[in-house]
Amino acid sequence: MTEAALEHARLQELVAAFADGELPPDEGHAVQAHLRGCARCRRELALQQELSRALAKEPARGASAGLRRRIERIGAPAPGRSAFLWKRRWAAPAAAALVLIGIAGATALRSRHGQRPVAEIPIIRDALADCRRVMGRNFPRKADLQAVAEGLQFPVRPLGRPGAELFSTWKTTLAGSPAAGLAYRWRGIVVVQYAVPTELIRQQPEVGEALRGAGFYAASEQGQGIIAFLEGGSGTVLVADVPPEELRRLML
Amino acid sequence: MKAEPKRACFQSSTLPHLDRLVTLASHWADGHEAEDDVQETYTRAWIAFDQLRDVGAAFPWLCQILRTVANERRRTRARRQELVFITGLEAAHEEIVASDAPSPLDELLARLEAGRLREALRSIPEDFAEAIELHDVQGLKYREIAQVTSVPIGTVMSRISRGRALLAGLLTVSDEKRAKQGVGT
Fold first, then answer.
1. B29 to chain A: which residues are within 8 Å by CB?
2. Contact: A141, B32; criterion CB under 8 Å
3. Residue among B76, B96, B137 whose CB faces A55 most closely
4. Which neighbouring-strand residues pair with A192?
5. Could you list the residue range(s) of the whole structural domain that residue B124 is in?
6. pLDDT at B77 over 90
7. Last residue of a domain, one of B46, B76, B106
8. 3-class DSSP assignment, residue A196
9. Is the domain of B66 the same as that of B143?
10. Mean per-residue pLDDT of chain B
11. How many helices, marked H, and strands, marked E, lie in chain B?
């Protein structure tokens, strides 16, 4: 290859950047000088400019009103459901859950066991926080039971109720202990299950007493139902936007 | 930063870019998936907002997050249905620039329906298409694209140059095929 051909090969690589005004002055001058004597590169320049201009005129899509509303709610101060970011496909289930909560009435908004707020029960507090976190991020996109159970010292048993469709799993930490998170679609709502060590759930204030008495713990916090129970060598905590009475239907 | 001032700052820095991000997301995904990706992008941006040092650079920063989100989703589902044969497109491009005849591109672009050019862009290899989308449609500078895609600026330069050449080849080849089949553009 001759020196001129080598120079042509080098400069033709720069024609697009020259068209976009992205070259430093010295290289820009070199390309400009080359263009004066090279018809092929002039045609390349015209082609690059035409396509760039045409693409810039392509119609923009823009955000839907629903997406804009959901994004404007990000970081809203209310810690309850209003701060949750529902995906478009969860909008209908969320609305259904709201109706159920309305029917259940104000009693569902109070703790069912004594006076201790759920925020003082580490495993419940952490489960609610983790639930908000995964909902805010629209849940991990895969459901892999084997992967989520790997390395845990207790079994992870998914809910066996007909109609409970598992769609997401993730590893997390509750009350300082490794735990597995599982999310289901069930009767038009989203239910989150946490699998935790048996001993951990027994040690929790109020929860341990409830397990020894009624065999399960139930509470409500800001419209979310929470139940906890032991089954099959591990502890289970369920959280959903329904009263705990509804959630009990899901006990294994 | 306290929650409310942070939220106000987050909204004023990021919301003006929402429509552009949805347009960019539609390069990688269709319909609701594109909006889901944008929502996930804003959620992650909110969590990491304290790391954004220059609010003037919010758009490339959001593009970078969106690209990660889209890539994570694409790992589990291959979107591209058909990839074009690059060698044939390079030959078609060479024919345009080496010929003394008037370029067919002017007339071809003039009769192309709105949106078809971006559709065609999705048929060339992703690295090239992405660089062109970020520059020509989203208006990012080369150095910003290098930052968003984590490649050297020389690679961005090469991808844009070669990508437009492939796009020109694709448009002419497709047009010739349509003409042979007697179908309008």
1. none
2. no
3. B137
4. A183, A239
5. 86-181
6. no
7. B76
8. strand
9. no
10. 86
11. 10, 0
Between A53-62, A87-96, B102-111, the lowest mean confidence (pLDDT) is in A87-96
ipTM over 0.90: no
Distance between CA A100 and CA A79 in Å, rounded?
A: 20
Query: Are B22 and B69 part of one and the same domain?
Result: yes
Q: What is the pTM of this model?
A: 0.57
pLDDT band at A86; cut points 50, 70, 90: very low
Query: Which residues pair with residue A240 across a beta bridge?
Result: A191, A225
* pLDDT, chain A, mean: 80
Q: Based on the domain organization, do B139 and B57 belong to the same domain? A: no
3-state secondary structure at position B80? coil
Judged by CB atoms closer than 8 Å, whether chains meet at A67 and B158 is answered as: no
Q: What is the Rg, in whole angstroms, of the alpha carbon atoms belonging to chain B?
A: 19
Within this chain, do residues B72 and B132 fall inside the same structural domain, yes or no? no
Residues B95 and B72 in one domain: no
- Asked, for residue B70, whether it belongs to a domain, the answer is yes
B68 found inside a domain: yes
Backbone angles phi and psi of A32, in degrees to 5: -60, -45
Comparing CA positions, the residue from A196, A198, A217 lying closest to residue A206 is: A217
